[in-house]
Design goal:
By secondary structure, the protein is of the alpha+beta class. 38% of the residues lie in helices and 16% in strands.
Length: 193
């Protein structure tokens, strides 16, 4: 008979089954289920350690820790290297560049990526082509750039008339972005604009 700190007793077979089921079902923290499940007094780790064989105890602790990590991803994380078991505490208010003591992988303490000299936000944009395109278009509109209608390269008008020549050979009307043959562009500009 195993008697817990709360006074409830379990037969050895039932207690062993309870601990194995907790490891398999990830039922943590380990608490007494006496009084029809109402007791809930934590089971002391030294009692579990004295009851289970070394291998089973270590497995139970590993499963309990992994379960805690799964339930608290904003607090603790595993190293980003797939087979590394090291963990680190997240720091979102003041991110720092961490180096794993086991595999030497570099990791940001906030986002969990290796983005060297970039902020987390800069790295997020760097990895998102759609966001890059949106920001480029926003900057272009703000700065007065337009895309060549033939090759889509950015074109800037610094001075002069509305006849633009792109490096792809297109003759463009800056106002409407129409492409015209070289001999017709000025007629278009005079008549349409």
């Amino acid at each position: 008979m195993e008697v817990l700190g709360c006074g409830h007793g379990y037969c050895s077979g039932c207690f062993n089954g309870f601990l194995k089921a907790a490891a398999e079902n990830k039922t943590f923290p380990l608490v007494c289920i006496g009084k029809e499940g109402k007791c809930k007094v934590p089971i002391a780790l030294p009692l579990i350690h004295s009851f289970l064989p070394h291998y089973d105890f270590n497995r139970l602790v590993e499963v309990a820790f992994a379960s805690y990590l799964e339930k608290h991803p904003t607090e603790l994380r595993y190293c980003r290297t797939p087979d590394c078991r090291q963990t680190y505490r997240r720091q979102t208010s003041r991110p720092v560049d961490l180096v794993c003591p086991s595999c030497f992988a570099r990791t940001c303490s906030s986002c969990g990526e290796d983005h060297k000299n970039m902020t987390c936000e800069e790295y997020r944009i760097y990895r998102d082509p759609e966001e890059q395109e949106r920001l480029n278009n926003q900057l272009a509109v703000k700065s007065g750039f337009k895309r060549c209608p033939r090759c889509a390269v950015w074109v800037e008008k610094i001075s002069g008339c509305n006849h633009m020549s792109c490096k792809c050979g297109a003759h463009i009307c800056w106002v409407c972005l129409g492409v015209f043959p070289p001999h017709a562009i000025y007629d278009h500009i005079r008549q349409a604009h």
